[in-house]
Amino acid sequence: MKKFLRTNEFYVAVILILLCVFIGIKSPVFFSLQNVFDLLRSSITMGIFAMGTLIVIISGGFDVSFTAIAVSSMYITIKILFAINYEGSFLVALIISALIGLLMGLINASIIGFFRIPTLIATLGTQSLFHGFLLFFIGSKYINNVPDGMLRFSRSNLITTVTPTGAITGLQSGILILVAVVIVVYLLLRFTMIGRNIFAIGGSREAAERSGINVIRTQFFIYGFVGMLAGIGGIIHGAHYKQGNPFDLVGTELNTIAAVVLGGALVTGGRGTVLGTLLGVALVVVMNNSLILIGVPSEWQKVVLGIILIIGTGIPAYQNMQAAKRVKTNLAE
Amino acid sequence: MSDYNNHLDNNDNGNGKNSFQERFNATRFLKIQDWNLMRLFLITVGIFIVMSLLMPTKFPRVLNFQSMGFQMSEIGILGIAMALAMITGGIDLSLNSVANLTGILCSVILTRLAGPNVAEPQVGLAVFLAIVIGLVIGIVCGLLNGFLIAYVGIPAMLATLGSMTLFTGFAFVITKGTGFFGIEAFQKIGNGYVAGIPIPLIIFAAVAVIMIVVMNNSSFGLKLYLLGSNPKASIFSGIDNRKVLLRTYALSGMLAALAGIVILGRTNSANPDYGASYVLQALLIAVLGGVNVNGGFGKILGLVLAVFSLQFLSTGLNMLLFRSPGANFFKMFSWGALIILFMIINVVSERRKQRASIKKPKPA
C-alpha cells in the first residue's frame, strides 16, 4: 500500500479525481451521462494510439509517425472501399486499415532495426514520408462521407439513454475495440516472452542483446504492432467523424505522447504500465474537452497542457537525478 | 590506450597545447570531417549542375539566386540552432515555436510603438527595441529549455516538446488565433537588399561565420564538443556541464528568435502555427550537414553546405513540378525520404569504418 502511494499512477489518479470533482462542482453538466459517454467516445482513438506509444516508449524508443500511419491507412481504406463499392461490415474496413498500418509499421521497423537509426529521427522522417506519399500519390482531397459499414458502426451504441432534452445518446461501441486492445497489450506486456523482451530492450539494449534476445526481431514486432494499432485507431477516427480527411490527426501525436508520459512511462525506457497510460489518457481527454466547462478559454488550453507536461516529466526526472546523486555520495563515502 | 598516452606525453612537453591540437586535428578530425564536407560539397554542386541543365533558362539566374537567398536564410539559422543542441547530444524541438512567439511579440511592440502617424526617429527606435526584446525573449525561452534539461534532468526531447506546447500556447493566448502584422519599416529586414544581396542572406552569413569562429576557436566551442562526445570526461576535466548546456540552449533560443524576426520581416505577418514543418527541416539540415545525432560531432560549414543543397533541390523541384498542384506534398515526401537515406548512408559508412579499423589494427 505504501509503495502504491509513491507510484506515478497514484499521483495521476489523484490529479484526475481532483480535476473531475473541481469541474463537476463548477459545472454539473460534467457528470451527466451524456458527457461521460462523450468523453469515453473521444478517448477511444487516443487510447488505442496510447497503447502503441506505451509499447514503443517501454522499449526505449519514440514514435511520432503513428498519426501519419493512422491517417494514411484510414484514407486509403476509405478510397479502396468506395472504389469497390463495398457496403458490408465495418470489420472488413478495420482489417484492411490494420494491414496497411502494419505494412507502414514494418517500414519503420526495418529502418530502425537494420540501420539502428535513432527512433525519433527515423519516425520524424517517415512521418513526413508517409504523409507526403499519401498527399502526393494517393490524394489530398477531402472525402465528406464514409462507406456504409463505417457509418453503421459509428451509429451503433452499446447502451443508449435519452437525455432530459429528448436526444438519444449512447456509449459508442468502438469502446469494445479499445477494451480489447487494452487487454491484449496488458497480457502481452505481463505474461509473454515478447513482452519481457520489450522491457529488457528498454532497460538496457546491450544487456538484452548479450542475454540472447533478438533485438531486431523484437523491434520488428514492436513497430509492426504499433503500425497496426495506428491503422485500427485511424479507421475508428474516420468512422467517428464520418469523413476521410487526409490532413487529420497529423500534428496531434504530442497529445498522445503526453498522455503516456504523464501516465508514468519512463522515456528512457524499461518502465511503464497499462493502467498508468489509461489514467494519463483520461487526464488529457478531460483537460482537452472540459477545461472550457470551467471557464478556461480555449486558447489557454495549450498553455495548461504544456505546463502539465513539463511538471509531469519534470518530477520523475528530478527524482531520478536526486536518486542518482544519493547513490554517488553513498559510494564516495 | 597508446593514443591516450601519447596525448598525455604531448601535454607534458612544453608545447603541449599546440601539438595536442595539431594531432587531434590532423589525424582524426580533419580527415573524417573533410571527407564528409567534400562529399557534401560534391552533392551540392551536383544538384546545382543537374538543375541548371534541366532548366537552363530559369535556374541559373540572378533573380532565382536572390529568391533562394531569401528562402534559405530562416531555415539556415534554425538549422544552426538545431545543430548546437544536437552537438551537445540533445535536440531542440521548440525552435519553431520560439520563432513564432518572438515574431508575435515583435509585432505587438512594433504596432503599438510605431503606428501609422509616428515620426521617423520613433519608428527607428521601435524597430531597435523590437529586435532587442525579441532576442531577449528567445534567450529566456532557451534558458527555460536549458534549465529543464540541465537542472531538472528532463531528456532534451521531452523538455523541448513540453516547452514547445507552452510557447505555442502563449502565442495562441496573445493572438487569440488570429494573425498579427508587422510594419513597413520592419519589412526591410526581410525583403531588402544590400548591393544586390538579400539582407536575410547577409544575416545568415553573419550568423554562420560567427558560429564557425565560436565553435572552432573559443573555449565554449571546445567545451560543447567535449560535452557532446563524452559528458563524463567533460565533468572530470573540470567543465560545469550544466552551465554549458544552459548557455547552449540559450544561444539556440536566441538564434530561433532571430529567425522569427527575419520571418516577421519577410512575410510581414506572425502566426502561432507558422512553418510547422520547420523543425523537421532544421533537423534534416543538421543531419545532412553531418551533425552526429548522438552528439559530439558536426561542423557549421557542413550545415551551410546542406542548406544550399537542400535549397537548390527544393527550388528545382518546385520549378519542375510547377504546374502540378502537389509540389508541396512531393517536397514533404522527398524530405522524409532524404532524411532517412542520409541517416542510412551515415550509419553504413560508419560501420564500414569500424570494420576496417578492427581488421587492420594499428601497430602499438
Summed up:
The complex is a heterodimer of chains A (333) and B (364). Chain A is mainly alpha-helical and 333 residues long.
Layout of secondary structure:
The complex is a heterodimer of chains A (333) and B (364).
Chain A: H1 2-5, H2 8-26, H3 33-58, H4 66-83, H5 90-115, H6 119-138, H7 148-155, E1 157-162, E2 168-172, H8 174-191, H9 193-203, H10 205-210, H11 215-241, H12 253-262, H13 274-290, H14 301-332
Antiparallel strand pairs in A: 1-2
Helix pairs in contact in A: 2-13, 3-8, 3-9, 3-11, 3-12, 3-13, 4-5, 4-6, 4-11, 5-6, 5-11, 7-11, 8-9, 9-11, 12-13
Chain B: H1 2-12, H2 16-54, H3 62-87, H4 95-113, H5 120-152, H6 156-175, E1 180-181, H7 184-191, E2 193-194, E3 197-198, H8 199-217, H9 219-229, H10 231-236, H11 241-267, E4 269-270, H12 278-288, H13 300-320, H14 327-359
Antiparallel strand pairs in B: 1-4, 2-3
Helix pairs in contact in B: 1-2, 2-13, 3-8, 3-11, 3-12, 3-13, 4-5, 4-6, 4-11, 5-6, 5-11, 7-11, 8-9, 9-11, 12-13, 12-14
